Amino acid sequence: MEMAHPLRGEVVQLYKNLLYLGREYPKGAHYFRDRLKKAFMKNRDVKDPEKLKELIARGEFVIKELEALYYLRKYRAMKQRYYEEDENK
Amino acid sequence: MALRALVGVKRVIDYAVKIRVKPDKTGVVTDGVKHSMNPFCEIAIEEAVRLKEKKIVSEIIAVSCGPQQCQETIRTALAMGADRGIHVDVSGKDYESLGPFQVSKILAALAKKENVNLVLLGKQAIDDDCNQTGQMTAAQLDWPQGTFASEVKVEGEKLKVVREIDGGLETISIKLPAVVTADLRLNEPRYATLPNIMKAKKKKLETVKPSDLGVTLASQVQILSVEEPPQRQAGVKVQTTEDLVAKLKEVGRI
To answer: Which residues, if any, are the signal sequence (chain B) (predicted)?
Structure first.
């Protein structure tokens, strides 16, 4: 059996973190999980450490984007519900 | 002066959930419904964590009153950066009638017991929209209050609080210890990420009963009826100006 890739742990952790974030995804956790899995499976054969680091960085970027998306979504909902008059000014 | 902060976090039905009223009009459906931390409480926690990052606050204690599930809300607060949690166990009938008055008594008792000098709360919860807990807690403790805060600055023994008021901002200076309630624009709360949730499991979370704090939960409020807002009437399409005028006359608009 071939040895586990040294970056395997990082990739698994990234996947878990994304999966956790996906629970709140507006289109649903299932929708998110299917696409997440597809995205990871697409790169399953990547072994080059440089390329892997690049892909992990992209994953980290997506995490930041999702956090920003959730924050804005909530902020807008609160603003609309509680500060409606401000919008009309 | 190093501050010790007590932050209240309330477990509410998630903001994105469509609320349904129970057929018997006694309340809203909560079983099997997604709950999360009240968004204004997230802002309160975030502010405490930022003050800690600036070394102004030395310890943050997150507290939540309610059933067992409130511990998840406390975990979220711990993941965001609170140091330890206190779960005040209130369930059954007591939880149904738990309101700002009872919670303020609990928070005041905890503030004294934990020897804190800053109580940070959300300005209101998105479930009952009371906007009373902070004010009542300040009254129970006889501390000054800075409500609807959109900016908080510690200046020696005082707090400078910029408040959101009708038509503008008000800046006040209050003496510590004090109670501050967070408004929407105070900060942008960080996300409780999975690694931080996992780390938060190692943080201390104690459970106490209101009676341990010498607080009784008797309520003077009786909920008579909970009802949905009136449904919006469907619109009608008209073909001609005459039709429009006729319709407007029909509904008494002209």
So the answer is: none
